[in-house]
Structure formats: structure tokens, C-alpha cells
Specification:
It is a single chain. The protein is of the alpha/beta class. A four-stranded parallel sheet has the order 3-2-1-4, with helices on one face. Helix 1 packs across helix 3 and helix 3 crosses helix 4. The longest helix is centred in the first third of the chain and has 18 residues. The chain starts with a helix and ends with a helix.
């Protein structure tokens, strides 16, 4: 798996540190194991992994990491589901505080295990719908992926 991820990152021109690469491999391995028991992602996770799956789960979040300013202090990921883009992004950016927001408790269990096993600090998982989200502090960064945007969600995001 390491060689495949490294090759996909190199093809995309993404330079990941050995620590970030190790974390992404551990995350992807955990996601594959858990996805056998519950549907965390609709992406195909059977071996050998498709390039498009590696790109969506690992490469694209790490490409986006270059766009994330180092100055943020509070970050929210809405609809965290299987953990991408938030977990790979978090592996690349460990500063600040991250809230993973997911309405499905089973997916939250996976996210909590991923945070624990990857030893990602200053990160919390909240089982709540975005419309019911209460902010304790202003946010500097919001990520969202694979969530259907409707008028209510856009309004909810705007209020954040």
C-alpha cells in the first residue's frame, strides 16, 4: 500500500513527510477494515485499491493541505463520515482544534477510533447534524466533502 500511495502522491506532485505518509497508510488500513462491517464510504476498498480511490481519500486531501493556512486555530469538518478529507488533512496540519461533525453514531465510532489509534490530538468527534451544531468559538476553517448541498445546509454553513 505504501508504494501505491507514494506513487499516486508523486504523480500528483505532492510531497508528504514520512510521518504523514505513515499516518495515511494507517488511516487507510483502518478504513478498509471498518468498511467491511459498515458502509463508511461508497468508494471501492477492495485490494488492489483503485488509483481513483487512493486519489479521493489521500491524494486530494494532501493536495488541499497546501492551501490551508498555518494560522487557523479552529476547524470544523462537516459530514466527516469515513474521515476524508479531514483525517489526511489533519495528519498534515496538526495545529489548532478540529471538530469532526457526523450525524451517524456508527460513523462517529469509526472516527473516534481513527483519532485514538492515529494519536491525533486536539480533535473531537461530535454526533450532531450541522443545523444543530453549537459553536463554542469562532471557526477559521470549514471543510466539507461528499455532502449534498441544499439551501438549508448552505444557510447553516453561512451562519457558522
Amino acid at each position: 500500500m505504501k508504494d501505491r500511495i507514494t506513487a499516486r502522491l508523486a504523480e500528483a506532485g505532492v510531497d508528504a513527510s514520512p510521518e504523514v505518509l505513515k499516518g495515511c497508510i494507517a488511516y487507510l488500513s483502518l478504513l478498509i477494515r471498518w468498511n467491511l462491517r459498515m458502509n463508511l464510504t461508497s468508494l471501492p476498498l477492495t485490494e488492489p485499491l483503485q488509483d481513483s480511490t487512493i486519489d479521493k481519500l489521500i491524494v486530494e486531501p494532501l493536495m488541499a493541505a497546501d492551501l490551508v493556512p498555518d494560522s487557523y486555530s479552529t476547524w470544523i469538518d462537516l459530514g466527516s463520515g469515513g474521515g476524508s478529507p479531514a483525517i489526511p488533512l489533519r495528519l498534515a496540519h496538526r495545529q489548532g482544534f478540529l471538530r469532526l461533525v457526523e450525524s451517524k453514531e456508527r460513523k462517529c465510532a469509526f472516527l473516534r477510533e481513527a483519532i485514538r489509534s492515529l494519536e491525533i490530538g486536539h480533535t473531537r468527534v461530535d454526533s450532531v447534524r450541522s443545523a444543530a451544531l453549537i459553536l463554542e468559538r469562532p471557526i477559521d476553517l470549514l471543510t466539507i466533502r461528499a455532502v449534498r448541498l441544499d439551501a438549508a445546509l448552505v444557510q447553516s454553513i453561512a451562519s457558522l
